[in-house]
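Justification of resources, computational component.

The compute hours requested in this renewal are based largely on the per-chain cost of generating structure records like the one below. Each record pairs the submitted sequence with a full structure-token output. That output is archived, and it is also reused by downstream analysis tasks.
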Amino acid sequence: MNSPKLEAYDAAWNTWFAEQGIMPLRIGYERLSGDPAATLTAICAALGVQAPNAEDVKPGVARLSDETSLNWMRRYRLDAAI
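The structure output for this chain reads:
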């Protein structure tokens, strides 16, 4: 179930960033959900702004990772032949 349209969008963004000489800060879900405070600190550092106090960083939602989401991931990978 690969989406050529989504892959084309992704490739276009990568091309645009390269043409502009921009190295995007890529942050995946696992990194963000695993340590939101450290991820926010990295984002602030990349932007050159002062990071908030790590103790003040409290995500408003819980990480979505359970058997249901794992099953969806397995189904997607099977459908997409990843």
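The CA atoms of residues 32 and 79 lie 26 Å apart. The first helix runs from residue 4 to 20.
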